[in-house]
Design goal:
mainly alpha, two-stranded antiparallel sheet, 2 domains, 2 strands, 79% helix, 14 helices, MFS transporter, Growth Hormone, Chain: A
């Protein structure tokens, strides 16, 4: 395994490329959102039905995370990455030429499978290429890149859709895929020696996942965190209809509002680091998910009563997303804290669960076409309430202290 020391040249370039790999998936989600109404008109469907293409992307991300983990260990990091990026490029081109909703839904699923290779490989290569003591800082930089995607992609997508049409968005995504593929081929080192003894048979892979699932701390915080995070998926899926159809905002204004709301998600996730100096992760999670559920309930009640106009909706969404920003990093850390041997399997299963539940929330929003924000609000509130219930029920099953391992040192956080 190749590791870069702190004096190596090109570290900044490597971090930038790994950040681009990590951001490819979020960019592919956010950039086409302003074009929902244009896609709906061209394909002869409703905006809510176009949301199914977003749901299929989430399902693809969920499935792909489980697929690439074993492949990256068996064949090294770069070969599976190349295959995934090539699939992404081809399906991006297909999305640009599609003429039916069914075709778009299918192509978006396989586009997500391709983009998964980039995200999973980037995480693995950080662990390979950088000293352990630098991993947290590098991951934080990658998360900033991912967090910037909701601020940049919808705004760019809005202008591109307005000027060139929604097909051009997928052409641009394909070009980005080509650029990232070339950078990966020529600028990224192979950081992991292929493990020829690694079994790709279902039995050993499933047994690893079963060992992870049996840990109460894992399923408690993974499920609670996944339902808390699912509210974000419901928002992403429902926001084009809410802002562009209900409030009649144009694509560029929607892009700016989407970017502004993402500040709540990004800002709270960064403030979280400061909060953890005084409070434990499990304490932050409890407050965050309860506040998220209360905000969701307030959203539903107000929408049902017809109390809210655009400013109130924006404020409630900002608070809700800020709660997600506090909950998600802490539930993720607590989910994988008990594992050393199966940390990779735990991370893959956690990510797949998170994306799978998020996809269901996204589908739920897409199935309703009530021309109000109530379906989105109800699913956001429902997932947040489920998060609270699962946290309360699952916490009773955790018999031992939550322990995070740092080398050979153990840190008790509960």
């Amino acid at each position: 395994m190749q590791t870069l020391d702190s004096s190596s040249r090109g570290k900044s370039l490597l971090i930038f490329i790994l950040g681009a790999l990590t951001a490819l998936g979020p960019f592919s989600i956010d950039m086409y959102l302003p074009g929902f109404d244009s896609i709906a008109k061209d394909l002869g469907v409703t905006t809510a039905e176009v949301g199914l293409s977003l749901s299929s992307y989430f399902i693809g991300i969920s499935a792909g995370q489980l697929l690439y983990g074993p492949l990256l260990d068996r064949f090294g990091r770069k070969k599976p990455l190349y295959i995934g990026l090539c699939l992404y490029i081809l399906t991006s081109g297909g999305c640009a030429m599609v003429h039916s909703l069914q075709g778009l839904v299918i192509l978006r699923f396989f586009q997500a499978i391709g983009s998964c290779a980039a995200a999973v490989a980037a995480i693995a290569m950080v662990r390979d290429l950088f000293p352990v003591q630098e991993n947290a800082r590098v991951f934080a930089l990658l998360m900033l890149v991912v967090g910037a995607s909701p601020m940049i992609a919808p705004t760019v997508g809005g202008y591109v859709t307005l000027a060139l049409g929604w097909h051009s968005v997928f052409i641009i995504l394909g070009v980005l895929g080509v650029m990232i593929l070339l950078a990966s081929v020529f600028l990224l080192p192979e950081s992991y020696e292929p493990d020829v003894n690694m079994s790709l048979k279902p039995g050993p892979i499933i047994s690893n996942f079963v060992a992870v699932v049996k840990e109460p701390q894992f399923y408690t915080y993974t499920l609670a965190g996944s339902f808390a995070f699912a509210g974000l998926f419901a928002y992403v899926s429902g926001s084009p209809m809410v802002f562009m159809e209900i409030f009649h905002l144009d694509k560029t204004v929607y892009g700016w509002i989407f970017a502004g709301l993402s500040v709540g998600l990004i800002g709270s996730s960064q403030v979280n680091s400061w909060v953890l100096r005084r409070y434990r992760s499990d304490q932050v999670v409890k407050v965050a998910v309860v506040a998220q559920a209360l905000t969701g309930i307030l959203f539903v009640v107000g929408e049902y009563q017809g109390w809210y106009q655009l400013p109130q909706v924006i404020v409630l969404l900002f608070v809700f997303l800020s709660c997600v920003g506090f909950a998600n990093p802490n539930t993720s850390a607590l989910s994988i804290a008990p594992f050393k041997k199966h940390a990779g399997s735990a991370a893959a299963l956690m990510g797949a669960t998170q994306m799978g539940i998020g996809a269901l929330a996204s589908v739920g929003v897409s199935l309703f076409d009530s021309h109000t924000a109530l379906p989105m609000a109800m699913i956001m509130a429902g997932t947040a309430i489920m998060s609270v219930l699962l946290l309360v029920i699952g916490h009773r099953q955790i018999k031992h202290p939550i322990v995070m391992h740092d080398g050979d040192d153990a840190i008790v956080v509960h």
